[in-house]
Here is the input.
Amino acid sequence: MNERLLYIGAEKNNEATVAHLRKKGYQVRRTLGLRPSLRALANNQHDAVIIDLGDVSMINARRISRKAGRRPEKPFTFLLTSHRSQLLDGFFYDDKLTRPFTQRKLENLLRRYLDERRQYVVRLGPLTLDKRTQVVRSPRGMVRLTRKQFQLLDYFFLHVNELVTRRDLMMAVWETDYLGDTRTLDVHMRWLRQQIEADPSDPEYLVTERGSGYRLCIPEEPEIGHEPLVLNR
Here is the structure.
């Protein structure tokens, strides 16, 4: 298994839970406090982060969850709380557990999310796109896309081999059908080609249909469920 967890909580309160997770094969690092937790997030790649709100102030827990949500590897983040109706505005998290809960229930929650992690990864011929980390692997190598580049490529993945009009892209990515000035689209398409094409000036995959739009030309069908793509920091 060897999946890496960061458990943020007091040792005396969570010793049995941490021991149980280690027994199940997880690599568990435990921290407490804002600075040690932020350092752990910055220096290590984790598959999941567990924050015990009983041991961390709400302000610090919110900062930690936001830091986790912005990490390149996008670890799943879970909150442990004692109050079912606790307000969690401003937190970045995937799920929460309200006490009392069994160690098995926590483990099952982790397992469900981690097993689904591969479902974010789509392979389409020579291209593989991780929708959680926004990383693409192509014959040029592996790179993290900007938000707009990711949205464009994700849309093309959903419409592979179909004609995609400029209006389609403006609606999908910029939420407008105004075509009076599409220079922004042109620039982002050029940048996207620079990320995935061997020769961006003569694209092999992302081709222009003159006067109509673009087409992602890859004959294979998309395959969902591959290993996550994570870049080193």
Remarks:
- Helices lie at 11-23, 34-43, 58-69, 103-116, 147-158, 166-174, 183-196.
- The chain has two domains: 4-101, 119-224.
- The longest strand covers residues 76-81.
- The chain has a mean pLDDT of 93.
